[in-house]
Amino acid sequence: MKWLKHDANAHTDTKLKKVKYKYGLVGYGLYWYCIELIAGNISRDNITFSLEDDSEIIAMDWNIEESLVSEILDYFVEVKLFEPKGKSVTCFKLAKRLDDSNSKNPEIKIIINKMEEEKQAEYYREDQTGSDSFGDIPTNSEKVITDEIRPDKNSLDQSMLDKKRKDEIKKEEKKNQKDSSKNELSAVQKKSDVIGIFEQWKIILNHPKAVLDDKRKRLIKSALKNYSFDDCVNAIKGCYLTPHNMGKNDNHKIYDGLHIIFKDSDNIERFINSSNPNQQYKTHVDETEKLVARLTGEQQ
Hints:
single chain, 300 residues, mainly alpha, Arc Repressor Mutant, subunit A, two-stranded antiparallel ribbon
């Protein structure tokens, strides 16, 4: 297959939004990379729509953790972007997005027709669950009230109160759902920040094969409690710009581990300052002026 149809507004899809919120650009990019791999293997002789590369190969291709790739692929299945197939996954939705040369394949047409039938069956099932289904027998609580049994004023007042309570309950439920969504987004953002900072450290300080283990996660999370994402990245840059940490010391050793950069507030702030040459110059001038003032005072 040479090409596939890609909607310009694909990023607004609800399922892909969930992927973006949970895994950021890593998850979003991995989805389209998998789509390209699946589509690239489709031909008149191969219409399995399966992902042939496993999580290990994909992780090696993009230099990311295999466990993260496996986790994201499982999430694609969970939100029904992909279908499970043994230890692999499939994406039959691609059948509708093939180039003209492949879409004319009779077997692919059968797959497309089957998908349409399943979609219509799903809509039919949803209709059958509605309260207006044909032939339903009303329960005692649903039977029409006759003229002989009419609610009095007290019953009407009680009904209004019940409605008010229901409205308040609904409002409270919406508020709780909104708060819950905010908390979930916050948790996703924190996870994304930890991964982002770790990836910056790998790139800036040249640790391409480093693994984000529990110890490194704790160090980054601890730093993020008091410092912003940008501050943490600047601290990493500051370490890179500090000659002593880059090996220009008596031992000729490099000290650029996350346990050194994020050891404590003093180290973090020192490295942040080192990331800004103007700040370094200002600090040096301030210290010089203080020293001159002290010496002048002693001479007087």
